[in-house]
Amino acid sequence: MKVSFFINSLIKEVRMTQEVMHKLVVETAIPLSFNWVARDMDGSLYAFQNKPNLDYGTNQDPVCCDMWDVYEGEVLKVSPKTPILMTFLSEEFGDWRDSLTEITETMRIDTEDVN
Fold first, then answer.
1. No. of H helices and E strands in the chain?
2. What pTM did the predictor assign?
């Protein structure tokens, strides 16, 4: 009974939230040393210097995890978590575990004086 109450409350919260959510696409610039970007289960977006994984580094026996694991290199938080669980946004954003993308696009920095 408690579980069904929790699920019903969660569904009600999602329905209310869906009515007021906006999708926003933002472009930004990060240092060239960051080569990967991925979304965590909570919706946060991170950039990584080295390719992260989901299985605590073994690549043999993946364990259910809610974030990307990193053992070398820096991590840069690009955006905060989403207002609701990514589980309820998978139709729009896809499965967060499939979000790992190699960053291949570069940009030039303006070097002229802006006075």
1. 2, 4
2. 0.71
